[in-house]
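Saturday, quiet lab. Running sequence design on the structure tokens for the scaffold JK sent over.
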């Protein structure tokens, strides 16, 4: 009995973690106008983009882990697989947009 109660408690507490989903990070919406922004605004924008890219890398790794786990357990189905692929595609599109927007802002800043 001494081992049953802790085992059940651990199982109950860890069950929600087994169903946790990967969370798509929200991309930064606006970048400073490089033609008029000061270096402080550009540095802040750089830190935001770096943080976003770190969060996006964690998201992609989470999707990869979910994929391997789903395949390994045999509990995968076509709908879940399509959702993971769609989430991956959305994440990669968001990354491309953020990088493109930031690079344009930096290019304007460097060209003045």
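Result came back. Writing it out in full:
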């Amino acid at each position: 009995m001494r081992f049953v109660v802790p085992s059940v408690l651990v199982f109950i507490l860890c069950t929600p973690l087994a169903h946790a989903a990967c969370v798509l990070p929200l991309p930064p919406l606006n970048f400073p106008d490089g033609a008029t922004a000061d270096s402080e605004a550009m540095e802040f924008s750089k830190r935001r983009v770096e943080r976003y890219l770190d969060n996006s890398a964690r998201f992609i790794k989470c999707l990869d882990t979910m994929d391997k786990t789903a395949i390994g357990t045999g509990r995968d189905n076509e709908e879940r697989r399509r959702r993971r692929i769609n989430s991956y595609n959305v994440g990669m599109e968001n990354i491309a947009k953020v990088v493109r927007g930031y690079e344009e802002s930096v290019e304007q800043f460097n060209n003045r």
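Notes for JK: The CA atoms of residues 53 and 95 lie 7 Å apart. The radius of gyration is 21 Å. Ask whether to fix the surface positions before the next round.
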